[in-house]
Design goal:
Length: about 260
């Protein structure tokens, strides 16, 4: 790749990661590799407390690279591509810092929606259309879409979207929990950054524990999730941040967390 197709900046503890692969911000193998490397680096960067992922131009991302998929000639090659995309999405979902998808522009489709679903929160512009149209190409979602979508919206709605390939409006997506909030498109990045900065101001030990409880607890049976929650809660009870947070509440002052 001659140019970077994923760029990022860091400001006030918030990393802004932008897909920049015109015209559609397609998630090619090279883009997935770049995104994976950047997310891994940001996860280890102590300066970063929250991450916002967005797309350049007129769309968040219109999906995987169709040309690359068209060149697949064996089931094994297709399986490896799917596993590659899933691994990148899993890294994002399991990040120890909150990741917010700022779903801007006109389209968030296929692999783009799978990327957004891997983020912890999704803020969408009012013009965007979201969907998993792979069925119309004779294929299916392969970057985790068949697994994450039912967990977000329920099995029946997920099957409807996957089997019809329909594109839905952001306003509809927020009604059944696919996105958290819809704002005017010019305000998407501003709103996502504001939410990221608010979470970045919380005690990061508690943020990490909360993310772990939800993300790792979801695949477990309910008793296993309760057990994980109890262990993490107990760990937080030994932190300086807990003492600071409680003392600040009792003293009616803002907490000054040290992330310890």
């Amino acid at each position: 790749m001659d140019r970077r197709c994923v760029v990022h900046t860091i400001e006030e503890s918030v990393a802004m990661v932008m897909l920049d692969n015109p015209p559609a911000n397609a998630l090619s193998r090279a883009v997935l590799d770049e995104l994976d490397r950047i997310i891994a680096d940001l996860d280890q960067n102590r300066e970063v407390r929250a991450v916002v992922i967005t797309g350049s131009g007129k769309m968040f991302a219109a999906g995987a690279d169709i040309q690359e998929i068209a060149e697949i000639e064996s089931g094994k090659t297709g399986e490896l591509l799917s596993a590659h995309g899933q691994a990148v999405m899993n890294r994002i979902e399991r990040m120890s810092k909150v990741v917010i998808a700022a779903v801007n522009g006109l389209f968030c489709l296929g692999g783009g929606l799978e990327l957004a679903m891997a983020c912890h929160l999704r803020i969408a512009g009012d013009r965007v259309r979201l969907g998993l149209p792979e069925i119309t190409l004779g294929i299916m979602p392969g970057f985790g879409g068949t697994q994450r979508l039912p967990r977000l919206v329920g099995v029946a709605k997920a099957l409807e979207l996957i089997l019809t390939g329909d594109r839905i409006k952001a306003q509809e997506a927020v009604e059944f929990g696919l996105v958290n909030e819809v704002v005017p498109d010019p305000e998407v990045l501003k709103r996502a950054r504001a939410v990221a900065k608010r979470i970045a101001g919380m005690g990061q030990v508690a943020v990490r524990a909360s993310l772990m409880a939800v993300v790792e607890g979801q695949p477990r049976p309910l008793p296993g999730g309760f057990e994980l929650e109890s262990k993490l809660f107990g760990t937080l009870c030994e932190t300086a941040d807990m003492k600071e947070g409680l003392n600040a509440f009792l003293e009616k002052r803002p907490a000054k967390f040290k992330n310890l």
